[in-house]
Design brief:
6 helices; 7 strands; single chain; alpha/beta; globular; 197 residues
Amino acid sequence: MLRVVVLISGGGSNLRALLEATRDAEYPAHVVAVGADREAEGLAHAEAFGIPAFTVPYSSFPSREAWGDELLATIAEWQPDLVVLSGLMRLLPPAVVEALAPRLINTHPAYLPEFPGAHGVRDALAAGVAQTGASVIVVDTGVDTGPILAQERVPVLPDDTEHSLHERIKPVERRLLIDVVRGIADGSIGLGAASTP
């Protein structure tokens, strides 16, 4: 059974979808802890599912590196096989990425390498493209530049707003995340070749 720690910053909708998937006795992974970099609404999902939660507040540390050191130490206490970034709106320090790689994955609301960064949905609309998508990647020390594990196209409709487009991407992100975690757990998706140089 794959041991997963999920890190969030906000509402945790991907987290909830993953927790719901793990209710199935056939699903080969379980979430052992949920962490956040602030008091996040999504921690309520952990409570609802009886999952331990922790907070390592970014604002409590003098530097990103000091915060990262404490976050890494706290994650290590749970001995996860995989760490999932699920709406963690903060770049991890390189030392944290390197310590966890390649067992560190993230979802992104675009068809990478198109539209990386914090505003993938807005950037797709601004570019006037006919389609965008969702991706699940291995996290590296770049911005959304890691190896792609799964992705799927989502059409952009003529009357789409950033909100409406994002709302149609989110279910695809959730499904891809659940499938990728399952694939990592059952060995059909390998991470070995994705290690940080």
